[in-house]
Specification:
The complex is a heterodimer of chains A (391) and B (184). Chain A is built from six helices and 24 strands. Chain A is an alpha+beta fold and 391 residues long. Chain A starts with a helix and ends in a 7-residue tail after the last strand. With 184 residues, chain B is mostly helical. Chain B is built from nine helices and one strand. The longest helix of chain B is centred in the last third of the chain and has 33 residues. The chains are: A alpha+beta (391), B mainly alpha (184). At the A-B interface, helix 1, helix 2, helix 3, strand 8 and helix 5 of A face helix 2, helix 3, helix 4, strand 1 and helix 6 of B. Strand 8 of chain A pairs antiparallel with strand 1 of chain B.
Chain lengths: 391, 184
């Protein structure tokens, strides 16, 4: 740190000057209200469910016994894999393909990646391993491939099921053939999270950056969900105000947007709004959802909340929990439907902090299968398996 | 006093937990807002971290480590907040800092202004490292524990974050100079 004495001083001064430590009664009350409705875990269960607690927050130092156990388990695993699978279990990858410069041509009109073959059936996911990597894998756990080193945090299959939209650009599966999405010219700062099924609109969270920097309220900052014409970025329409740029998705027919709203005075809630910005309404009473995905038939929404999976009926708002029949103990962190609506893909922790595998199961919770069973888990960030049924 | 409150809260005492929340809410808000640069997301991260703290408090073996443990829960939720959601593109339609740069070109811009602009260009992970080290002033070992990484990794991440900030500041300075030349 001594190499940067001036910068260090400036950083400390900047943090002191700009740190906003204000809190409101509403925030305080909301925390205590949620705590009052949440039972405490028994000590052993809390430590088991959250290894960060072991040792009072200090990293766990492996004992000799733990090392011996790890070596024996590893050896047994390798022998088993050789005996039954004909070779070691595959780790992710061919080597990552280097990204060419992102100075390629602007997107042509109209959006070209809608028509095409049906979705290829692969699962797209990203994980952090020194840098963010993007890969695909078949639902049966075969053909794991690293596509390329990624620029951004998320990504989705384009509606054609062959291209990938991420970080304001469209890639082919090799990470080449980059087409940069056109940027709208407007005072909003927009983060695009979805593309309508017909490819005609982006769904984006927008804020007026100047208002945010000035400490403006959500209303003043216009924080909310916007529909933006693709590919040219014109015709920006606000669909709904929302204090959270959480999950949001177009319905399979493109008529409705489901999103999660945030309210200082209560839990986060599922909401629906038409794709023209009318009929904004709360859907059911599922508290604090943190991911959502439309069922391919558009009749229900798959959501995860507080580590569990629910299917929320669009007509009634009733949330029905779906419990994986095996592998309980760790919380689920996000779930999506398969393109044909017969399977659910979900992410669940399998080890220490930020170590996950992807699993599939039937809609009933039966037949849980570890898709990314490479031994040891990955720091998986996001995944997609067909938000846009095609054809 | 805090140790006593933690022990009472571990026994299910809501009033004790309320006092712990009151004592740490400002620090947690400040930390999360600096890391996430989004007031709404920061409040969510703080709320979720404190709810985790309440639920799993009985698993905390050493009550004296409550603050360090809370930092770790908050950092985890800040990181998860950004990683949970698939973002496929970010359009920065008008860079407010660049707009102001033209107006400000006639006067010297303080380093701290460039630091603010530079911080906006960093990733959440990079800002997290800097906030832990230079806002919370955590010893590197405690910052490493908050992130759940080895001490050596923490040191290298801190070096990279500082280097990234320096590069971002230099890029901002170049933009300011170009804007000033354009205005002239």
């Amino acid at each position: 740190m001594n190499r940067y004495p001036d910068l260090e001083l400036a950083l400390r001064a900047t943090f002191r000057e700009h740190a906003d430590v204000a809190s409101t009664d509403a925030q305080f009350d909301a925390i205590l209200d949620r705590a009052a409705r949440t039972p405490q875990r028994a000590g052993w269960l809390a430590a088991l469910a959250n290894p960060t607690l072991r040792g009072g927050g200090r990293p766990v130092v492996p004992t000799r016994r733990m090392w011996v156990f790890a070596v024996v388990a590893l050896t047994a695993g390798v022998l088993l894999s050789v005996a039954y699978l004909g070779g070691p279990l595959p780790m992710t990858s061919p080597p990552a393909t280097a990204l060419p410069p992102a100075t390629t041509s602007p997107l042509a009109t109209p959006f070209p990646y809608v028509a095409g073959p049906r979705r290829n059936g692969k699962i797209l996911y990203s994980w952090y391993e020194n840098q963010v990597r993007l890969g695909t894998i078949d639902p049966d756990g075969s053909h794991a491939a690293t596509l390329f080193t990624s620029w951004g945090e998320g990504g989705l299959f384009a509606p054609d099921g062959e291209h990938i939209i991420q970080s304001g650009a469209i890639f082919d599966v090799t990470g080449r053939d980059i087409t940069v999405l056109n940027l709208p010219a407007d005072p909003l700062s927009l983060t695009v999270v979805d593309l309508s099924p017909d490819g005609s609109r982006y769904l984006a969270y927008g804020v007026l950056k100047d208002a945010v920097l000035a400490g403006g309220t959500n209303e003043a900052a216009q924080g909310g969900w916007y529909s933006v014409r693709a590919p040219d970025g014109g015709d920006v329409r606000r669909l709904a105000l929302s204090g959270w740029d959480g999950p949001a998705r177009f319905s399979p027919d493109g008529s409705t947007v489901a999103y999660v709203s945030r309210d200082h005075t209560g839990p986060r809630q599922l909401r629906l709004v038409s794709s023209t910005g009318t009929d904004d309404r709360i859907l059911g009473s599922l508290a604090n959802p943190d991911s959502l995905d439309w069922a391919p038939d558009g009749r229900s929404i798959l959501a995860t909340a507080n580590g569990d999976i629910y299917s929320v009926d669009i007509e009634t708002g009733v949330a029905t929990q779906i419990v994986p029949e095996s592998g309980g103990g760790y919380a689920v962190d996000g779930a999506v439907w398969s393109p044909d609506g017969t399977k659910i893909l979900f992410k669940r922790r399998v080890g220490s902090l930020h170590v996950y595998d992807l699993f599939t199961m039937d809609a009933s919770g039966a037949h849980v299968f570890d898709v990314t069973n490479f031994g040891g888990g990955l720091n998986i960030w996001f995944f997609d398996w067909g938000s846009h049924p095609v054809g | 006093v805090q140790r006593e409150l933690v022990v009472r809260a571990q026994g299910g005492d809501h009033d004790a937990f309320a006092r712990l929340v009151a004592g740490s809410l400002g620090r947690l808000n400040g930390t999360a807002r600096l890391i996430l640069h989004d007031p709404g997301q920061a409040e969510d991260a703080v709320q979720d971290a404190l709810l985790d703290a309440w639920r799993d408090l009985r698993g905390l073996r050493d009550p004296d480590r409550f603050d360090a443990w809370l930092n770790r829960l908050l950092v985890r939720h800040c990181q998860d907040t950004r990683r949970r959601i698939a973002r496929i593109g970010r359009f920065e339609l008008r860079e407010a800092g660049l707009e102001r740069a033209g107006e400000d070109a006639q006067r010297a811009v303080a380093l701290s202004d460039h630091v603010v602009s530079g911080l906006r260009r960093l990733t959440v992970d990079q800002r997290t490292v800097l906030v832990l080290a230079f806002y919370l002033d955590l010893p590197l070992a405690d910052a490493a524990a908050a992130l759940g990484i080895p001490l050596g990794t923490m040191k290298s991440r801190l070096n990279r974050a500082v280097a990234a900030l320096r590069a971002a500041i230099e890029a901002n300075e170049r933009s300011s100079i170009r804007s000033a030349e354009g205005a002239a």
